[in-house]
Amino acid sequence: MDFVVMAFGLLIGSFLNVCIYRIPRDESVVFPGSRCPDCGARLKPADLVPVISFLLLKGRCRYCSRPISWRYPLVETLTACLMWLFYRHYGITIMAAYYAFIGCLLVVVAFIDLSHQEIPNGLVLALMVVGLVAKLAGIGAGVVDGLYGLLVGGAPLVLIAVISVLALRREGMGGGDIKLMAAVGWCLGWRLTAITLILSVYIGGLVALMLLCFKIKGRKDYIPYGPFIALSAIISMLWGERILYWYIGSFWG
Ligand SMILES: [Zn+2]
């Protein structure tokens, strides 16, 4: 079963790649079929086998031999691992499907934010709708919990945004980040959202510090926050409850 889930994850990842490339360009994610972004050649089914095609072609387009982005095999492998993790945690359940679906949306958000410095509103809206459908079906966090989550996720970032504009006179937090965090809150409920928020601050801070130390980024450079929200939300969906007990426990010794 593990193998089936991983293979399924690779295929989903391949579709997420299409979304990551096309959504910021306002293109349909369904039609037409995949083309090489450099030479425009229609890709054959043999070129579209996740990861394996990339390895066989040694990372180059079969037609124009220009390099294919490392993002393609990375997103495919990542998605396969995610699907497997959700399967191991929740089995073949509706809960696993719900969280895996949110995970997929977050992967798309993270990679679009990395390459375009924007979080498309359509994806935030998709998260809100998925959360609403789940609530109507009685899956995951309830409506009240979701509304608290929306506040727990959105309000601190709004506060940070206001403070950084007033005190530092610069934009510290984008509107897209605030909307994304609020939508995550709506889907996950307030407890997992609190964990997501705390994790994203720690992980984001640590990575920013490393990028500055190794001089990969300068102090004035923009570091997108969306990928950290996405990663933290995924960690929360998988291990959130455990982290919560550990975190609370560490205060009372
Ligand atoms: Zn090409």
Structure description:
This protein is mainly α. It folds into 2 domains: 1-81, no CATH class; 93-253, no CATH class. It is 69% helix and 0% strand. The protein is built from 9 helices and no strands. Bound molecules: zinc ion. Zinc ion (ZN) is lined by residues 36, 38-39, 41, 61, 63-64, 66.
Write the layout of secondary structure elements.
Blueprint lengths: L1 H21 L29 H5 L14 H20 L3 H23 L4 H16 L6 H25 L7 H14 L1 H24 L12 H27 L1
Helix pairs in contact: 1-3, 1-4, 3-4, 4-5, 4-9, 5-7, 6-7, 6-8, 7-8, 7-9, 8-9
Mean pLDDT across all amino acids: 92
Number of helices: 9
Bound molecules: zinc ion
**Largest β sheet strand count, sense and barrel closure:** none
Count of individual domains: 2
What would you call the structural class?
mainly alpha
Spatial separation of the terminal alpha carbons: 41 Å
Strand content: under 5%
* SSE ordering: HHHHHHHHH
Radius of gyration over alpha carbons?
A: 19 Å
Low-pLDDT stretches:
none
Give helix % range. 55-70%
Number of DSSP strand runs: 0
The shape is globular
Write a compact overview of the structure shown.
By secondary structure, the protein is mainly α.
